[in-house]
User: What shape does this take?
Amino acid sequence: SQQGEEDPQALSIQEGENATMNCSYKTSINNLQWYRQNSGRGLVHLILIRSNEREKHSGRLRVTLDTSKKSSSLLITASRAADTASYFCAKDNNDMRFGAGTRLTVKP
Amino acid sequence: GAGVSQTPSNKVTEKGKYVELRCDPISGHTALYWYRQSLGQGPEFLIYFQGTGAADDSGLPNDRFFAVRPEGSVSTLKIQRTERGDSAVYLCASSPVPSPNTGELFFGEGSRLTVL
Assistant: This one.
């Protein structure tokens, strides 16, 4: 079964707004990673957060991890049209399993 | 440097035929993963190799699917007696850091399989 379920399934915002995507999981993890996928392409790694970390930043990306709630969130600030893509979380629990993803559309 | 390479990029076959999909990981990456992705869905885990051995093959849907990595580098995903439901994009990824605490996965562009 898949691990790491994202919500919302789809998100549409205007350029300049912030986008928040959430990921929940069911069992303990070693780390959690976020990936981006442009239509028809392979996935690209965005950020990794370890189970003993609570927050991590990379450029316009901010990831939080709450192991007590078994959830993570990805925040993209000041979104751009080029951020339009699908975003997936992946849970590392001795394998790497992905959720169904959030399809983000940023309108110019 | 070269990334993860997958061949063929597109494969069209007839129901019942045998198919092989190849993945060339980044040199030196010990961990290799296969996923299957249908339109609008997330990548579905199939199998994970650590070196030459399959560390976790619990995602293979049935015994028509088999994967090998005989020398710990190139991997081949083999599908026997293909069915229309096997149509999907098959993604390969490699990582220099094995589980636990897997590092970043580097993905190929995928092999799109269409079974007619």
Observations:
- Chain B has a mean pLDDT of 93.
- Chain B touches chain A through 26 residues (CB under 8 Å).
